[in-house]
Amino acid sequence: MPIEALVSLKAESLSPIGRERIRLLEAVAREGSITAGAKAVGLTYKAAWDALDAMANLFGQPLLETRAGGKAGGGARLTPTGIKVIAAFSRLEGEMARLVRLIEPELAGTGISPLNLMSGFLMKTSARNALRGTICDITSDALAAEVALRVSADTVLYALVTMESVRDLGLCVGRDAVALVKAPFVVIAPGEVAPRVSVRNCLPGTIARVETGAVGAEVVLEIGEGKTIASSLTARSVETLGLEPGRPAFALVDAAHVILAID
Hints:
Strand content: 25-35%
Radius of gyration: 20 Å
CATH superfamily of the largest domain: Winged helix-like DNA-binding domain superfamily/Winged helix DNA-binding domain
Low-confidence stretches: 114-124
Distance between the termini: 33 Å
Helix content: 25-40%
Mean pLDDT: 82
Structural class: alpha+beta
Number of domains: 3
Shape: globular
C-alpha cells in the first residue's frame, strides 16, 4: 500500500495547520471571500472562521485581509504572510514526499513505518484558543511563577504556572510561547471601561462574531493585530448582555486557566 506524506505546521500541543486548512486559505484567496472559499472546500462559514482564527493566532498575524462588499457578501485576499505560509507548506509537502520515498525501503520489516515517524505532526488539543506571543516578564517565588506573554503590541496575557514548569519548559524573558485557553474559561464583559474584578487577565477588544444556538453560544473577541479569543457561554447570556458584533468588550481569564506551550 503506498504511503502518503502528511505535513502539518504546528507548535507543540497545538492544533496543527495541515493540508485542509491550507486548502481553505487557498480557496478563500481564489474565490475572493470567506463564504465562497468555505463552500468550495465543504466547510460551514463558522468552521472556516474558526480555522482562519486558529491560523492567525498560531502564526501571530493575520493571513487574510477582509473588506466590506465584494463577491458573496464580503471580499478577502491573502496578506504577505498568508502567501508565504502557502508557499512554505507546498514546499514542505514536496520535501516530505521525497523523504518518505527515500526511507520507506529502509524500514521494510522493522515494524516501523513513516506514518509512525510522522505521528507527532498530527497531535491536537481541545483548547479553543491558542495565542502566540513573547514572554516579557516572569515574577516568581519558590513554588510558583506568573509569566507575562505579550500577544500583541497592546495586549499581555498572564499565566500562573509552577516553578517546575518554568524549569522544564525553559521559560525565560524573550522566548516565544503559546498560550492555550479553553473557551468556557473565557468570560465576556461588554463595555468600554474595564470591570473591577479580581481576575488577572482583562483583555480589551471588539466583538467580531457571535454564533448563537438554542442553548449555547460562542462569542469571538478581536484583541488586536488580527488575533482573537473565543468564549463559550449560554445563549441567554448573549441576549442579557446585549453582545453583538462591533461592540467593545473585555475577555476575562484567570491566570491559572492559561496553559503555556513552547516549540
